[in-house]
């Protein structure tokens, strides 16, 4: 510090504060949101803290200052978090008899005209036909908006109650022998459904999950207008509800020894308690196995946010992972090819 100029000293003070903040944020994934709702909100800032500390590290390296070690050590300690944010190269392979599965939050097929684009249901259907996944999971699915049932001979479309505006659906080219819905007790349309799908001699259990929304609008102008205390309180409350929902679903998951895939809209990041709770030693994240780049799945104008996940039982071979950047919803669809 003695050899630093005044400006560099100020920069290093901020570097120290933000490095400490990142170090402490690593612990948030292990703290239940219901215990400290407002504290859990900080997990949303982990990606920003990672990028800021990377910026500090590069700055000090260019300046040939040993102060780069601060951010370097903090980032090294959280290597798994850094790798969750960005994948430098995809690890893809192909194999015979591989199966493809797609997850897509279709935003009610534009029922409320969130976009001026026309024929959204038809465009989504044409996109799905083009990519031709063997298994398709949709969230915010409104009934009878497409002819997907004509494409897939087996399907389970479920809304939580008569008054639900939308629900979740699983479409399959393979026979469905069992179906079930974990209806969360909270008001709203969120739930987790699963189907047992027979693929030749194997039976896969496929979960399609849609956790509680945090109701954060992607436009930055809307965030500026909103009262910060109310916003933080709502997000903290949402995290607490997500914890209850994840616990309900995982209780059901652990009752079965079938090879299992959990996919859908988590409405949370890979740095959260929810993700850590679900993605235990039994599962592996398809993006981390075969993805590339930031893997952004939600249209946030100012940050590449990944909140849609595909988690596979360790006994399943992941061949490839793709994210498709189309404009038909506020989410981007993701697809994984795998082999049992």
UniProtKB/TrEMBL annotation:
Gene3D superfamilies: Endonuclease/exonuclease/phosphatase
InterPro entries: Endo/exonu/phosph_ase_sf (IPR036691), Endo/exonuclease/phosphatase (IPR005135), GPI-anchor_lipid_remodeler (IPR051916)
A GO term for molecular function: endonuclease activity
Nuclease in keyword set: yes
Ranges annotated as spanning the membrane: 12-32, 38-61, 68-88
Endonuclease/exonuclease/phosphatase domain segment(s): 102-331
Keyword terms of this UniProt record: Endonuclease, Hydrolase, Membrane, Nuclease, Transmembrane, Transmembrane helix
Hydrolase found in the keyword field: yes
GO annotation terms (biological process): GPI anchor biosynthetic process
Top-level taxonomic group: Bacteria
Any one of the GO CC terms: membrane
Protein name: Endonuclease
Organism listed in the record: Salegentibacter mishustinae
Lineage, top ranks: Bacteria, Pseudomonadati, Bacteroidota, Flavobacteriia, Flavobacteriales
């Amino acid at each position: 510090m003695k050899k630093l100029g005044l400006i560099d000293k100020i920069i290093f003070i901020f570097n120290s504060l933000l490095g400490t903040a990142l170090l402490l944020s690593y612990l948030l994934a292990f703290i239940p949101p219901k215990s400290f709702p407002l504290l859990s909100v900080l997990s949303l800032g982990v990606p920003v803290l990672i990028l800021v500390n990377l910026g500090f590290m590069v700055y000090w390296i260019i300046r040939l200052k040993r102060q780069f070690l601060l951010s370097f050590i903090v980032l090294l300690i959280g290597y798994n978090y850094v790798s969750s944010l960005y994948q430098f190269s995809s690890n893809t392979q192909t194999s015979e008899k591989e199966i493809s599965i797609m997850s897509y939050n279709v935003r009610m097929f534009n029922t409320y005209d969130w976009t001026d684009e026309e024929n959204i249901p038809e465009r989504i259907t044409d996109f799905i036909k083009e990519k031709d996944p063997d298994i398709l999971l949709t969230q915010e699915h409104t009934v009878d908006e497409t002819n997907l049932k004509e494409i897939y001979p087996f399907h389970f479309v479920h809304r939580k109650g008569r008054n639900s505006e939308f629900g979740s659906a699983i479409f399959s080219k393979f026979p469905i022998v069992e179906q079930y819905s974990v209806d969360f007790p909270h008001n709203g349309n969120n739930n987790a459904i699963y189907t047992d799908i027979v693929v030749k001699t194997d039976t896969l259990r496929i979960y399609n999950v849609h956790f509680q929304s945090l109701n954060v609008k992607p436009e930055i102008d809307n965030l500026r207008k909103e009262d910060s205390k109310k916003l933080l309180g709502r997000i903290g409350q949402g995290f607490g509800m997500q914890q209850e929902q994840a616990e309900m679903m995982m209780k059901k998951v652990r009752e079965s020894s079938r090879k299992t895939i959990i996919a859908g809209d988590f409405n949370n990041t890979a740095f959260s308690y929810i993700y850590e709770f679900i993605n235990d030693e039994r599962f592996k994240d398809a993006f981390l196995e075969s993805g590339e780049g930031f893997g952004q799945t939600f249209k946030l104008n100012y940050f590449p946010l990944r909140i849609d996940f595909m988690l596979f039982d360790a006994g399943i071979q992941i061949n490839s992972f793709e994210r498709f950047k189309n404009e038909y919803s506020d989410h981007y669809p993701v697809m994984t090819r795998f082999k049992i």
